[in-house]
Predict the structure.
Amino acid sequence: MSRLSEPGYVREVLTRHGLHLSKAMGQNFLVNPTVCPKMAALCGADGHTPVLEIGPGMGALTAELSAVAEKVVAVELDRRLFPVLAETLADCKNVELVQGDILKLDLQRLAAEKFGGEAFCVCANLPYYITSPILMRLLETALPLRSITVMVQKEAAQRICAAPGERECGAVSATVWYHAQPRLLFQVSRGSFLPPPKVDSAVLRLDLRAAPPVQVDDEARFFEMVRAAFAQRRKTAANSICAAGRYKKAQVEAALSAIGARANARAEELTLPQLAALANQLEKPGVANPGAAGV
């Protein structure tokens, strides 16, 4: 068992390096000895597959990934942790640390330089407050990704895995289902962390699709419409979409009728094929009216 699962050792290392945990960076270190080995085993990495880790913290998950993956590249924003990681990962010769913000780094360049164009997996314990931006960045950037395995807030995991047409589905969920097949792997109690957060967590895996399950005529317009449709959840899809200013309500309602959906349907009631068909219907010549808000 790694000593990084011992709270006393974690505190001793942090104290020795003059560090304290940063709430602003969402730093809660895993001290449950079963979680990281399980994540590493289920992330899809092997001796021929490299892994990108986001936010290694003190290296508990990194060390487990090092044991199963060909190579691990860990991106860490907090420079103060590098001396700690140099100590805790001293025996992990296939780990490379990169200082930077995953939301700002050129991910295509990073993947090309570190993995040489090879397909890779992502495995990470994500800060709760930037879960969605990170997932969207990974999914929307053209990367040779096989899978994304992440620990997130339990409620966020449930929303992300909710399929279009289900009540908990949102814009992020729909985008995830377009790019990948999500599944919830296991739950993690709040007591597994130091310090313990106020919520429980869950680990989910997104297996990237070889091709989207639906055909859209204009991908950018599709995602624009999806974001608009879910932006005001208490409103109907027609009201939410027309509020974005590109279409009139009557046009959206006509498009909904054309795809066999109710004119007053809410966005979460629409399946992924229906969302795709709606976007395609709205992009037909003569339908779009830039700047035309109202009913």
User: Anything to note?
Assistant: The radius of gyration is 21 Å. The beta strands are 29-30, 51-54, 72-76, 95-99, 120-125, 145-153, 180-188, 193-194, 201-208.
